[in-house]
Amino acid sequence: MQQLHQGAMDNQKIVVCDNGTGYVKCGFSGDNFPTSVFPCVVGRPMLRYEESLTEQEFKDIVVGERCADLQHQLDVSYPVNNGIVQNWDDMCNVWDHAFYNELKINPPDCKILLTDPPLNPLENREKMGEIMFEKYNFAGVNFQFQAVLTLIVQGLLTGLVIESGVGVTHVVPVVDGYSFPHLTKRMNVAGRHITSYLVDLLSRRGYALNRTADFETVREIKEKLCYISYDYKREYQLGLETTILVKNYTLPDGRVIKVGTERFQAPEALFTPELIDVEGDGMADMVFHCIQEMDIDNRMTWWVRKVDPMLTTATSVVTLPVELPRGPTIAFEVNGGPERGSPHS
């Protein structure tokens, strides 16, 4: 029997768990980074593969990274959709894996902090609390909004948080540590939709890509090569007239594909959702309307001073230095990791 996490038994008795649409991030209060980050997915062996699976001594339920390795042999399900838990039985399987396999804790000896997504229905929060107390017997349960926690970890209490995960994007205003659900903006465009759009764009270029089988490969292309253009029309014209934007990418089967204007065309859907046939405001317009709808005192505070919105993605937090002008035009400067480099380099 594996030993329990010693820190959890000694001085790290507060477990932190962030249940996202794409990933679960869990660890202990006081740590700088999550102890474990794994896909929020549950797989069950398909009937026609039962014989081969028994040879590999698989369990009835497979959770997390192993589902990706065995995706062709499993019937997979995603218990969280757009940040909201939809399948509680599968979610309990995910929590079992997080608490017992990843963190190796004894829940009754711990308290737990659960992140609460924007616009989460009250009944979902109550159900989650019920499971934490009655199934896992945690000593205490606390819920905190993801946007508030994002600012606190940066030493801030006031800011504008843009949460863009796998399935949905939210813009959440926070003032003095309090969020405003009635002012929170939502857009059903996020990482999964950008990846799907990139599949379409590459297919139009002539590459034979399967939306299901090649989805993870295209996601990696997106994360390594895509960027947001400052001037979309100018960048597109540059891509038509030169090859400076073209990058090569080697697929798992050894094929090499060229990715050009698709590098910025795909993420442009975050700002112009009509590109993928989604109605509604893009990210920049959501930020503007969010501030405009605040009460006059807070609105003036946001317009007259520099505000640092925080962009949280499925696996990271990025600071967006923005000088908010006294008008509707908002210019975003997105700073990616150093490994991304310049899009033209």
Q: Can you give me a brief rundown of this structure?
A:
With 345 residues, the chain is α+β, with helices and mostly antiparallel strands. 31% of the residues lie in helices and 21% in strands. Among the domains are: 41-77, no CATH class; 191-274, ATPase, substrate binding domain, subdomain 4 (Actin, Chain A, domain 4, Alpha-Beta Complex).
Describe it for me?
It is a single chain. The protein is an alpha+beta fold. Among the domains are: 37 residues, no CATH class; 84 residues, Actin, Chain A, domain 4. Helix content is 31%, strand content 21%. Helix 7 crosses helix 8. The termini are far apart. It comes from Phaseolus coccineus (Scarlet runner bean).
The rounded Rg comes to 22 Å
Q: Work out the helix count.
A: 12
- Outline the biggest β-sheet: 6 strands, mixed
> Which architecture of the domain at 191-274 would the CATH scheme give at its second level?
Alpha-Beta Complex
Task: Please report which band the strand proportion falls in: under 5%, 5-15%, 15-25%, 25-35%, 35-45% or over 45%.
Answer: 15-25%
Arithmetic mean of pLDDT:
80
User: pLDDT below 50 for ≥5 consecutive residues: which ranges?
Assistant: 1-12, 53-57, 305-310, 314-341
Question: Quick one: how many beta strands?
Answer: 18
Return the structural class.
alpha+beta
What is the CATH top level name of the domain at 191-274? Alpha Beta
The ordered H/E elements are HEEEEHEHEEEHEHEHEEEEHHHEEHHHEE
